[in-house]
Design a protein that fits this description.
The complex is a heterodimer of chains A (325) and B (764).
Chain A: E1 5-7, H1 12-22, E2 26-29, H2 33-40, E3 48-51, E4 61-64, E5 68-72, H3 77-81, H4 84-89, H5 91-98, H6 103-108, H7 111-116, H8 122-125, H9 163-170, E6 174-179, E7 182-187, H10 188-191, E8 210-217, E9 223-230, E10 241-250, E11 253-262, H11 272-278, H12 285-292, H13 308-324
Parallel strand pairs in A: 1-3, 2-3
Antiparallel strand pairs in A: 4-5, 5-8, 6-7, 6-8, 9-10, 10-11
Chain B: E1 3-12, E2 15-24, H1 49-54, E3 69-75, E4 81-87, H2 89-93, E5 97-102, E6 110-111, E7 116-117, E8 122-123, E9 129-135, H3 138-145, E10 149-154, H4 161-164, E11 184-188, H5 191-197, E12 200-208, E13 220-226, E14 229-234, H6 239-250, E15 257-260, H7 276-288, E16 292-295, H8 298-304, E17 311-319, E18 325-337, H9 347-351, E19 358-366, H10 380-398, H11 402-408, H12 426-437, H13 439-442, E20 453-464, E21 473-479, E22 484-488, H14 497-509, E23 516-519, H15 537-564, E24 571-574, E25 577-580, E26 583-589, H16 590-597, E27 601-607, E28 619-630, E29 636-646, H17 653-672, E30 678-679, E31 684-685, E32 703-708, H18 732-744, H19 755-763
Parallel strand pairs in B: 3-16, 14-15, 18-19, 22-23, 29-32
Antiparallel strand pairs in B: 1-2, 3-9, 4-8, 4-10, 5-9, 6-7, 11-19, 12-17, 13-14, 13-16, 17-18, 20-28, 21-22, 21-27, 24-25, 25-26, 28-29, 30-31
Helix pairs in contact in B: 10-11, 10-18, 14-15, 15-16, 17-18
Chain lengths: 325, 764
């Protein structure tokens, strides 16, 4: 671990100017579960750490019944997983939060940190000057790529590691970003970026921009939602593939739905045509099974991850069956 | 104390060890069943349990001496390189750095069978020791490592046994990449004739991965010089082995080196060899005149402190229509890392089944990666997975139930030598295990379970040595108040050695365990005992403890006879007192006896007896697994493991169950998730932490049932104990693999059986 200067700003404005002042030599610090790992393993060596925990208001949850819920970026995962309204009306997010790492981590990790965490790729986390660290080679492309992406890769094949991001994408959440003394709103889909845009970043945040809160519109009455995280071991693992869905059905048909995927792409993934064609889908097992096979035909797996294609289709089938049958 | 010097042998890890040793020739009464005993066999809590649970137990990692300094090691960044230049100037200038060792200034101490040195200018794998720094604090030492400038000449490298065997492969050492220059070969009978006799001949290939021990306590030593005498606290499975390597490396008399291991947080074989780090710490401490603590970090543990070598095993067998084996062969290739080690896995195929025509050919191949070391039942874990998967395939070919097939080819004698076994209760283990899992009631025909969650049941057999043997000694000191100090050779590596020795002595002397202190793991105060490996500690030491206790009892009776003026045969020993047979009102207690004799202490020295000649001594057992395979995700969930074993006498029900649980969990890890991932393009290991090197969590642990089908093995020793630490892991992966096949009708022939492999088998 390198030595660094520890800053404790009291406002977003101060935090933002500190970050701008130190440009590429500073790191935002919330729960610290990822930040400390990155520093201890010498993945990054920031000279400055900017602690956000003294800024008031960032760790609050505000619910407006029938409209939306706003979750501050510094709310701990444990408080999301246990929040009664989130559990009832935004179940997919509570389930995703509850499946992250271990209780010790969830007690300190924040939603903002979970969304802005860096990827878990072996090469990014290891002693390799890969393309995501400013090098010019993706070592995974011709290396150990069992856990890597099957869509949206090139020139870097990471998967985005956040569970909560997948749930938020299914919920059509908006991200509020502090930028240049004001807040701007972007969609969950637009917040994350593909490596073809910039292989060294996972989201649109520029130096000095800080994720302030998440705003989630309340799903229609009668909607059900769910998160399935597939891991190689039962707990304390990142998803191999995950799927989040919010579905409303009526009679024997789905009337509205959104599905998002984790573990398949460098950003939380959605398929527009899938979401559009959910409306009207009959809720029988056979129909759902046939529907689920229609997607990911355009996937371009690497040498060791073709298994993710049947896996993601099966998880899509399973989540739709669980929510409707 | 009748003694003689004999030649005897016992199985230790991969091979038989022959020794000429002083042994006890005393014969003591057979203990019979455990239910006739008072202390031995009972579920006695560990005598060190409170210390461990409360945190007062001092492990090597906790040792903190006044003025202690801290050392860290710099490992090679490349898999094969020559160090052209090494500049330590900047590191040395960092405030708090005390000394730096490299190949340029360190003593030339040969290592790994003279294939390298403590510091070598040619580094042959990622992590190979380049330099060591001692500083006033651990963080300074870590910081200083980054300031060492090494100029490497990178060389080509090889990362698999198959590539290393190619004629144009990089040669890691001048004499080629095959350890010993040729494969290890064994044959009996006539393999060609055997295949000719067969109605069916089957061949299949199985692969196992490289697994890393990853014990909880990291490898570490603390060293302190007192003049010319050296004291070493080490996290080791063999204090005497470390003492001998340290004394040889530094040119010190063995008597000047004290090695201490009071508590150890796991080793599994990785701490069965002396670490370079221990010698490095001793050299640094001598240079700077201060105590040095040296720690291998988690990343380095995944690179430099050993692993279970991988294997590619081709098995071939001939069977008659009725399932009788006529011939078997095994050819295996194992990558053992950059320095000579052993990767054979033929133990199970040679030892389990009746088959007179058999041939094995085993290649241990060097590659540019961390060197293999013994890892809980070396060879047998890999070998059993392949053999027992293959046996199920043979049974299916013959149309016979897998368990019936095994009984059909059951060997009543050691199939290699024809010697009888001291005991072999494998049939009983099969019976108990199959009943407990519901083999005949619950197990469905393969691939017939419906739904997407498919259940299956499978089993696999275990063989191991574990006889233990001499030399092993236990000294007893009976104090004037009747309390007892037990000094045992060896060390307690977490298996319960402290407790079982006290139980054995307590059984004989009828003195409560809380009146005893057990001292282990200190080369200057305890008599010699073996390394804790090969499942030999309890079977070697417990008979020596009984010998010492029985001698003590005789000594007390003799003393009482003299004090009371009566012949010994008119006296009887009971609960730390000697009574007159015909007059129960007359007795003398131990304190009274000592007082009358003006004695302060009775001392006896017990020794292990020789192993019986002309017998094969093995432990046996079987695991039965029930699994559920999710055919949509490829995930294998183990629902239940039943373990039934012949391990001789149980000394302590609790510690035996502890070790079975640990072994089975480690077996599940090996079967389903543990794997060192080496990047073939760069020669670097990709998963060097406990997040990416996956071991089972408690949620991955199924219901576990343990059955011991044996009583004391009276032909073996006066306690009749066979070792069981390694048998606990041996058949787990094979049982799970066979259960998976039973569930889905697809055989996964490569470990670990991760979801991608299952999905590829189902959808590929």
């Amino acid at each position: 671990m390198n030595n660094f200067k520890y800053h404790q700003p009291k406002s977003l404005q101060d935090a933002s100017s500190l970050m701008q002042q130190h440009n590429n030599n500073a790191l935002l610090f919330a729960g610290g579960t990822d930040a400390l790992g990155l520093i201890k393993n010498n993945i990054i060596t920031p000279g400055n750490l900017v602690n956000l925990k003294l800024i008031k208001g960032l760790n609050e949850i505000k619910y407006t019944p029938g409209k939306e819920i706003k979750i501050g970026a510094l709310v701990n995962l444990v408080d999301i997983a246990g929040h009664s309204v989130i559990r009832e009306k935004f179940a997919v997010l509570a389930e995703a939060a509850n499946n992250i790492a271990s209780p010790q981590f969830r007690n300190v990790a924040t939603i903002g940190g979970n969304l802005c965490q860096r990827p878990r790729c072996f090469y990014f986390r290891g002693d390799f000057h890969c393309i995501r660290k400013g090098g010019n080679l993706c070592y995974a492309a011709a290396g150990e790529n069992k856990y890597h992406c099957i869509v949206g890769g090139d020139p870097c094949y990471i998967i985005h590691p956040s569970d909560s991001a997948v749930a938020l994408l299914a919920l059509d959440a908006k991200f509020s970003i502090y930028s240049d003394r004001k807040l701007k709103i972007v969609s969950a889909w637009d917040f994350f970026i593909l490596p073809s845009i910039d292989p060294t970043k996972e989201n649109i945040l520029k130096p000095g921009e800080i994720l302030e809160s998440i705003i989630i519109p309340e799903p229609d009455n009668g909607s059900k939602s769910k998160y399935i995280k597939f891991m190689e071991r039962e707990v304390f693992d990142f998803a191999v593939v995950s799927v989040a869905a919010v579905v409303k059905k009526s009679g024997g048909k789905i009337v509205k739905g959104r599905v998002a995927f984790g573990g398949v792409a460098p950003k939380p993934w959605q398929i527009d045509i899938l979401n559009k064609s959910l409306a009207g889908l009959s809720t029988g097992e056979e129909g759902i099974a046939a529907f689920s096979k229609k997607f990911f035909n355009d996937a371009t797996p690497l040498e060791k991850n073709a298994y993710k294609i049947p896996l993601v289709r099966n998880l899509l089938k399973r989540i739709l069956i669980d929510l409707t049958v | 104390m009748p003694r003689k010097i004999v030649k005897t042998k016992y199985f230790f890890e991969e091979d038989y060890r022959e020794t000429i040793a002083e042994v006890s020739t005393d014969k003591y009464k057979d203990w019979g069943n455990n239910d006739t005993l008072n202390v031995v066999g009972k579920a006695v809590s560990r005598i060190d349990g409170y210390d461990k649970v409360s945190g007062t137990a001092i492990y090597t990692f906790d040792v903190d001496l006044p003025g202690m300094t801290h050392a860290r090691i710099l490992g090679s960044a490349y898999p094969n390189a020559k160090i052209k230049k090494i500049n330590t100037k900047k590191a040395k200038q960092l405030d708090g750095v005390l000394e730096i060792l490299t190949f340029e200034n360190a003593a030339k101490i040969p290592w790994f069978n003279n294939s390298t040195m403590l510091f070598d200018s040619h580094v042959r794998y990622e992590g190979d020791e380049v330099a060591a720094i001692v500083a006033e604090s651990d963080s300074i030492a870590e910081e200083a490592l980054k300031l060492i400038e090494v100029e490497y000449e990178q060389l080509s490298f090889v990362t698999s046994s198959q590539d290393a065997l190619k004629v144009n492969s990089v040669k890691i050492h001048d004499n080629g990449n095959i350890v010993g220059g040729k494969p290890a070969e064994y044959d009996r009978g006539n393999i060609e004739e055997g295949f000719k006799e067969a109605d069916y001949v089957l061949e299949d290939k199985f692969e196992t991965q490289i697994a890393v021990h990853n014990s909880t306590e990291v490898h570490c030593s603390v060293v302190n010089w007192d003049g010319n005498k050296l004291k070493v606290w080490d996290s080791t499975q063999g204090v005497f082995a470390v003492r001998n390597v340290v004394s040889r490396s530094l040119g010190l008399p063995e008597s000047d080196v004290t090695v201490i291991t009071k508590y150890m947080g796991g080793g599994f074989g990785s701490k069965l060899e002396t670490g370079k780090y221990t010698i490095i710490a001793a050299l640094l401490a001598r240079d700077i005149g201060k105590p040095v603590k040296i720690t291998v970090n988690r990343k380095q543990m995944n690179l430099i402190t050993g692993n279970r070598p991988d294997s590619i095993q081709t098995l071939k067998a001939g069977i008659k229509k009725d399932g009788t084996l006529t011939a078997m062969s095994l050819t295996s290739y194992s990558a053992v890392g950059a320095y000579p080690s052993w990767g054979g896995c033929s133990g199970p195929i040679k030892g389990i089944y009746k088959c007179s025509n058999l041939k094995t050919t085993e290649y241990s191949v060097m590659i540019n990666a961390g060197r293999a070391r013994a890892f809980r039942a070396p060879g047998h874990v890999q070998g059993t997975f392949a053999l027992e998967s293959f046996i199920d395939e043979l049974a299916e070919k013959a149309g016979i139930d897998p368990l019936e097939f095994r009984l059909k080819n059951y060997s009543e004698v050691d199939p290699g030598s024809g010697s009888p076994y001291t005991t072999k209760l494998l049939r009983e283990a099969y019976k108990k295990g199959s009943e407990a899992i519901g083999w005949y009631e619950k197990r469905k025909p393969t691939g017939t379970d419906t739904g997407y969650l498919k259940r299956g049941i499978g089993m696999a057999t275990q063989i191991w040595g574990g006889s233990g043997g001499p030399p092993a000694y236990v000294t007893l000191k009976l104090n004037s108040d009747g309390s007892v100090t037990i000094l045992g050779g060896s060390q307690d590596i977490g298996t319960g050695t402290y407790t079982i020795l006290a139980q054995v002595v307590s059984e004989v002397l009828e003195i409560p365990i809380d009146r005893m202190q057990v001292i282990l793991g200190n080369t200057s105060s305890v008599p010699f005992g073996p390394e804790s490996g090969g499942s030999t500690t309890a079977p070697s030491l417990s008979p020596a403890a009984r010998d010492a206790a029985e001698q003590m009892k005789s000594k007390i009776i003799s003393g009482a006879a003299a004090v009371l003026g009566l012949p010994e045969d008119e006296l009887v020993y009971k609960e730390a007192s000697v009574y007159v047979k015909n007059d129960k009102s007359k007795s003398v207690s131990i304190p009274a006896l000592m007082h009358s004799m003006h004695e302060q202490m009775f001392i006896t020295n017990g020794a292990r007896s020789a192993n019986p000649e002309h017998y094969a001594i093995n432990s046996f057992g079987a695991h039965f697994a029930e699994v559920e395979v999710n055919t949509e995700t490829g995930k294998i969930k183990v629902l239940k493991i039943v373990a039934a074993h012949d391990i001789g006498r149980v000394l302590n029900q609790k510690t035996v169950e502890n070790q079975f649980h640990g072994g089975i969990i480690q077996g599940i890890g090996f079967a389903l998730m543990e794997e060192r991932i080496l990047d073939a393009n760069t020669g670097k290991v990709l998963n060097t932490d406990l997040h990416t090197y996956k071991i089972p969590t408690i949620k991955d642990v199924p219901e576990i049932e343990i059955y011991v089908v044996s009583k004391g093995d009276n032909l073996l020793s006066n306690t009749g104990v066979k070792g069981m630490g390694e048998p606990a892991i041996i058949p787990t992966a094979g049982a799970i693999a066979n259960a998976v096949y039973n569930a889905i009708g697809k055989r996964i022939k490569s470990l670990p059986m991760t979801p991608d492999k299952v999905l590829n088998a189902l959808y590929g």
